[in-house]
Amino acid sequence: MALVVLGSARPAAGAAPAPGFDGKKLFIDKGCFACHSVNGPSAGPGPELTQVAYQRDAVWLRAWLTDPKKLKNDTVMPKLPWKSQAEQDALIDYLLAARHPIPAADSTRAGSRIPPCPSASSRRADAESS
Ligand code: HEC
Asked: Using CA positions, which residue lies closest to atom 41 of ligand 1?
């Protein structure tokens, strides 16, 4: 699982593993934007996600997107239907590639509310502070 996070803000096109799926478009089509934002403070109940890759990796994101309630059983985030693994991967790739700091939108709080996924802990570096 070699994830190349591109230095500067580049759309998820660079290393997209899933041609045919556009993560940014999926974010809208799947309704994620109703609860989340990317690139600015979130107006919905979910955290801003531009910074999610600072504390989550692809393994954790896959587990979360597959079944949020497995990681946090009282979350309001629904279990969404996925047409294929490639579709989910495209969205994960988009979130990982979007990574950049936004001081105005602190999305790090959500991370501390949900315990890290066990399968991700081996890859977790120093991301979890506080
Ligand atoms: C009905 C609202 C809702 C929708 C729709 C929704 N989410 Fe969420 N999501 C949340 C909430 C609320 C949280 C915070 C977890 C919690 O405390 O329940 C969350 C958490 C997350 C997290 C984890 C953030 C972290 O670091 O802990 C990710 C990633 C995420 N959502 C991605 C998505 C994606 C991608 C979609 C679309 C496929 C989506 N969400 C759709 C409400 C939603």
From this structure: 32
Q: Tell me whether residue 60 is in a domain.
A: yes
Q: Which residues pair with 59 in a beta bridge?
A: none
| CATH number of residue 45's parent domain | 1.10.760.10
Distance 10 CA to ligand 1 centre (A): 23
Q: How far is CA 11 from CA 34, 36, 37, 101, 130, in A?
A: 21, 18, 16, 16, 31
Q: What is the pLDDT of residues 30-78, one digit of tens each?
A: 999 999 999 888 878 998 999 899 889 999 999 999 999 999 999 999 9
Could you tell me if residue 12 is inside a domain? no
Tokens of 10: 């580049």
- CA–CA dist 47, 15 (Å, integer): 25
- Could you give the number of structural domains in the chain? 1
Threshold 0.85, pTM exceeds: no
How far is ligand 1, taken at its centre, from the CA of residue 71, in Å?
A: 12
